[in-house]
Design a protein that fits this description.
Helices cover about 10% and strands about 30% of the residues. The chain is mostly beta strands. It has a domain of about 100 residues. A hairpin with a 2-residue loop joins strand 4 and strand 5. The longest helix is centred in the middle third of the chain and has 12 residues. The protein starts with 9 loop residues before the first strand and ends with a strand. The mean pLDDT is about 85. Keywords: Signal.
Amino acid sequence: MALKFFNRVYVLTASTGTAAVNLGAAISSNLYSFSDVGAADGDNVYYAIEEGTDIEIGIGTISGGGTSLSRDAVYSSKIGGVMGTSKINLAGAGRVRVIEPAEFINLITDHMNATNNPHGVTKAQVGLGNADNTADSDKPVSTAQQSALDTKLDIAGATIRGRSRRPRTVSPTGTTLPTSCQGASRIA
């Protein structure tokens, strides 16, 4: 199953030893039990188990409909003041909670801030297989484009002859402008 996170889960456990822990009731009425939040068999969670001054941080798997948690991998612990990766040998007065360990949060943050394409996504995978990063000025003109351009009039310095008609308009000063002109016009 997938890694799951649950808010404010903090329960008692009367389990002893280093095996899976039985998950009891929430420590207080403003906290949740694993079954309260719908933790399902097979869900993996980051957990912290505390008893006395000892702590164990790891990842475990929910079973028994939210009543049991295996202790699959211990990432860090502090038992009797000594740092390590050992399981606490529980004496029946533990507390278990769901956590988001710093290592996990740091991995997510580093990943979100990565600008070097960490997944190796290609342009073809996102539907841009025919795209390139060529500047427009460096792109070739197709035969069809060049044929269309060849039929256009280069207006710089051209003389246009003939009769032009335009609708009758009134200038901002109120003068009526002519509706046609005849002769040649030079475009500079």
